[in-house]
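FAQ: What does the model actually see?

It sees only this:
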Amino acid sequence: MELFTPDFGLVFWMFIAFIILFFVLAKWGWPVILKNMDERADTIDKGVEYAQQAKHQLDNARDEARRYMEEAQAKQAEMLREAAKMKTQIIEEAKQQASVEAQKVMDAAKVSIEQSRKEAELQFRNEVSKFSIDIAEKMVRMQMKDDAAQVKLVDKLLNEIEKN
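And it is asked to produce this:
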């Protein structure tokens, strides 16, 4: 039963040991523990503050990235519109140039055809004239084979000249 009821001496020495331990802890232990707890609390506060700043910066970076993406998409759309406009303009210019060139070719062909036609007409007239002269010459020679026909023709021509 002695274990359950401690003696006065044991209680006294336990009380003295407790008081000494309390003063030692109060003098050197608790300040270190409280200082470490304060530093840990400051570190945690700084970590929370840093996390909030990082979150704020991340949000800003996301917003900025979204703006850059929107700007890039707008620029891309503008470039595509410009490219389509330039394509249409180039096609129209090419069509106009082709039309002008075709008209020039047509005009040149018309001039060439007209010149060829005139040359052919002139050549045809020359050929017809030559054939007519050849035919007339042959007819006159046939008719003028005898002297009586020659005299008759000269008289006829002289009579016509005198009438005029």
